[in-house]
Input
Amino acid sequence: MGRPAATLEVGQVVESRSIGPITQTDIVRFAGAGGDFNPLHHDAAYARQAGLPDVIAMGQMQAGMLAAWIADLVHVENLLSFSVRFASPLAIGQTIEMTGTVSSVSTEDATAHLELLAKSGDRAVISGRARVRIALSG
Amino acid sequence: MTRSSTQGIPIGSVLDTVSFEVEAGKIMEFARATHAADPVHTHPEAARAMDFPNVPATPTHVVVAAHHRDQKEFVAALGLAIERVVVGSVDWEYIRPIVAGDRLTGTRRVIDDVTREGKRGGVMRLVTLETAWVDDTGATAVTQREVLIERGA
Output
């Protein structure tokens, strides 16, 4: 029946995921999927006029990547809540590196919290948190 | 911090309502765009083998509602200057995974609207919006909250 939940322990570092370098095609693909057609994300001349060096990705693209990665790790049906904070923009040519640590485990309701971070080089792009259902060991 | 209900739409009132059908093709497209690897999002047989009635969407799928909304219109309705607005944070609470075939209606309300001093001077306005995504049985599947930040002029 279905899939077993993951077993997670406090302090555990989950398997990271790296996506990139981000291309204009990646951004356009997300625009088509998500419906965000703000020209800041696909029109370089418009982005420059707005004071950016070039187009930037939509925050929801990075949020979706972070969420999909966590869902791949714990299975989507075990994800109870997910939140993101946008720290800095992601530009074409940059690679996003996603890392996560289990910050707490509740044996009472078989859930865990994860602290998530997506960086490009040393710069934070987004931070996030997830609450997930887990399997209790032993 | 100053609470204001004079700018834009009063706290508690509905900003907009959007309905759409969750489609397998859109789930696949969104999963690909966000690099989801789990085959349940893209292969109906993999989904059914895991007891899903149909392919489940990835966790942030309801953002596809942007296809059905006019961003300029709702930002203007809130009394915000679009060129100074960024999204600060978003969170989702899941009651169940949404699956292809669901028909969802999202009612978006203004739940907070405050101004405060920005770190680099000027006044920032923070508007918190909450959307309850309800299926055809009237049950909420997902709740989404987003905080829009308007930087000082």
Residues 59-74 of chain A form the longest helix (16 residues).
